[in-house]
Design a protein that fits this description.
Structural class: mainly alpha
Distance between the termini: 36 Å
Order of helices and strands: HHHHHHHH
Helix content: 55-70%
Radius of gyration: 15 Å
Number of domains: 1
Length: 151
């Protein structure tokens, strides 16, 4: 495990313990570790992903925030730019997440009732380990700096 992966895991876990949800924690930790300024609007956009999209139990919020981070690094600014790199990276990370955790849905990853001790203990582990997995993925792919727009 790299120093940045450890730092991301620890930062995400601490954000979660401080009261941020899984998605808020992963995006905040990732931008902190990479030194990428994230505006408050971007950070606030992650809130609704917690609990698998507002307690719906669907897509894990930590996974959703990871895809947001990939978009921050390799997303496009204009419709004329290719979306294929972002799509390929998102799919690959999704598959890696599923391989590590066995599922991508919040309710499958964490079957405990929301906000119980068991739920929170499990979720902080998933949150921290997702931030670690993402940082390892970013380093492996050489994606620790935002791409320069071609527009």
């Amino acid at each position: 495990m790299t120093d940045r992966a450890t730092e991301a895991r620890n930062a995400a876990g601490q954000y979660f313990k401080d009261g941020f949800n899984c998605s808020e924690s992963v995006l905040r930790a990732t931008t902190d570790v990479l030194g990428i300024p994230a505006d408050e609007q971007s950070l606030r956009m992650t809130t609704g992903f917690g609990g698998g999209f507002g307690h719906a139990g669907c897509v894990c919020g930590a996974l959703a925030a990871s895809v947001m981070a990939l978009g921050l690094l390799r997303g496009r600014n204009a419709a004329t730019e290719s979306r294929e790199e972002a799509y390929a990276l998102s799919k690959e990370f999704h598959d890696r997440f599923r391989g590590k955790f066995g599922a991508t849905c919040c309710r499958a990853l964490n079957p405990h009732p929301f906000d119980t001790r068991e739920h929170l203990v499990n979720c902080v582990k998933i949150t921290g380990n997702t931030a670690k997995l993402l940082m390892e993925f970013l380093e492996e792919k050489g994606l620790t700096e935002p791409a320069v727009s071609t527009r």
